[in-house]
Amino acid sequence: MPGKWARRHLSPLSEFQRGLIIGMKTACLSTHRVAGQVDRSECAVINCWEQWTREVTHVRKTGSGATRKTKRREDRSIVRQALVDPTVNRSTIRADVGVAIVPQTISTHLAEENLKSKRPFRALPLTPEHRQLRLQW
């Protein structure tokens, strides 16, 4: 099954897996053998064990994430512009907000509000009746 290895190795360790790793490393098993038993990379086993020896805990830390570049007021302005004119593009919104942000930030804010991009039609969609009349003409 292609892609299974990548998904498995990028997902975070569960509490159970962390406990297994700590138990096996405490029993003096090698990192290579523990990684094979838990079906994870050796790097993940090493990181888990180092955290245990350093902090005496195996609880996964929650990441703080990147700091937001826009304030709530600017977020509302982005959403308001997208609601007023659904065909407005990201560069126009960025210029109106007045904050140095990348277009992906605007897309992220709109996605948080469950708004999707809308593009103007290149041509009006024709109904079957319109098609028939056009062919007759």
UniProtKB/TrEMBL annotation:
UniProt domain Transposase Tc1-like: residue ranges: 75-137
Molecular-function GO terms, alphabetical: DNA binding
GO biological process per UniProt: DNA integration; DNA transposition
InterPro entries, A to Z: Transposase_Tc1-like
Pfam families, per the entry: HTH_Tnp_Tc3_2 (PF01498)
This protein's name: Transposable element Tcb1 transposase
Gene encoding the protein: TCB1_888
